[in-house]
Amino acid sequence: MLLALFGFLITSLFSTGTSLGGGSIATVILTTYLADDADMLGAEAAYSAMEAELQYLLDNYEELNPDYDEYHFELDDIQHDPYVLMSILHALHDGEWTLADVRSTLEMLFDLQYILTETVEIEIRTRTETVTVIDPETGETHEEEVEVEYEYRIITVTLENFNLSHLPVYIMSAERLGRYAVLMKTLGNRPDLFPTGSFPNASVLQDYGRHSIPPEYLDDETFAAIIAEAEKFLGWPYVWGGSSPQTSFDCSGFVSWVLNQTGWDFGRLGARGLYSITTPITREQARPGDLIFFNYTYNAPQPHLPTHVGIYVGDGMMIHAGNPIGYVSVETPYWIRHFYGFGRP
Question: At a CB cut-off of 8 Å and minimum separation 6, what does 308 contact?
């Protein structure tokens, strides 16, 4: 009965277009982890056990694979956010689930998150060896040094941690991605489930950064419209690839959405795409409503180009899709270090 009611409420919620900020009973159910604690903790333990096995393999790789002459390792950290894992499982498995129900899902997620590659290179090298030579005429033996060729085997082991929070956009429909976003906003209404002391990578419910826009800035109608639209999503969670209220947003999805609702029409662009449609300006020329770009904020293919974007609101502040969406100073050491430039749409 509970599962049927849950399914009905989920369907009703999305069919009526209820947003992440809705306050209905259906929304309360939608934002709550429904699995038993034992099953959720068991799922977390099972995923952590797979990570521990992978870590053991890498820590002891040379002993377990002794047939190489040279080893190179390029390894990302092995870690995940247990709240991301629980939110994914609840978004993919409607209603209550047990550990047995999600075993295959855990394996699928693990294989997508951790990409282990082993590349072997064989070089033909020479070395000097001492050999015993028999004189065919006298039968006497003597030792000689000769150059011999041999295979020198080099292995490069690479581990990419794709980041569990990046997977939902690739494996979920828009509706399930929306449910995932809601669960990440509320942590399933279970902030006690994975205390950060015991689970150092666990999410915590975060209050979004607040800022009061000076009234005179809002005399600019375009900027006022941008702020009115952007502030609708204060406190919403960062969702990799998200680009609408149904899924929540990542940084470029958020900026694209806000601008497309307030006078522009360019579709969904990434940070580099947004930079390409702006006119570069100096820091001194920047005014509220301009875009501000940063680089090297994550391991992007070309990290020296823009990898993050926000909407500048003046006075050294921006509103952006951090985690969660909110206001932040761009004059902190982190943002100063990653600053790329300003652009005017």
Answer: 251, 271, 293, 294, 295, 297, 298, 320, 338
| Spatial contact of 250 and 238, defined as CB atoms under 8 Å apart | yes
For residue 197, give the 3-state DSSP assignment: coil
DSSP 154: E
| Token reading at 182 | 């809601």
Choose among 295, 291, 282: nearest CA to 345: 291
- In order along its 345 residues, the chain shows pLDDT tens digits of 333 333 333 333 333 344 454 455 556 678 999 999 999 999 999 999 999 999 999 999 999 999 999 999 999 999 999 999 999 999 999 888 999 999 999 999 999 999 999 999 999 999 998 888 888 888 888 888 888 899 999 999 999 999 999 999 999 998 999 999 999 999 999 999 999 889 999 998 878 999 999 999 999 999 999 999 999 999 999 999 999 998 999 999 999 999 999 999 999 999 999 999 999 999 999 999 999 999 999 888 899 999 999 999 999 999 999 989 999 999 999 999 999 999 999
Sequential DSSP letters for 274-335: HHHTSEEE-TTT--TT-EEEEESSS--SSTTSEEEEEEEEETTEEEEESSSEEEEETTSHHH
Which residues share a beta bridge with 143? 132
SS percent in the chain: helix, strand, coil, step 5: 40, 25, 35
* DSSP class per residue in 229-292: HHGGGTTPPB-TT-EETTTEE-HHHHHHHHHHTTT-------HHHHHHTSEEE-TTT--TT-EE
Tokens 């020296």 belong to which residue? 304
Work out the number of other CB atoms within 10 angstroms of the CB of residue 315: 13
How far apart are alpha carbons 224 and 213 in whole angstroms? 10
Residue 134 makes CB contacts below 8 A (sequence gap 6+) with: 140, 141
H/E run at residue 123: strand 114-134
Residue whose pair of structure tokens reads 């009703």 in the numeric block:
12
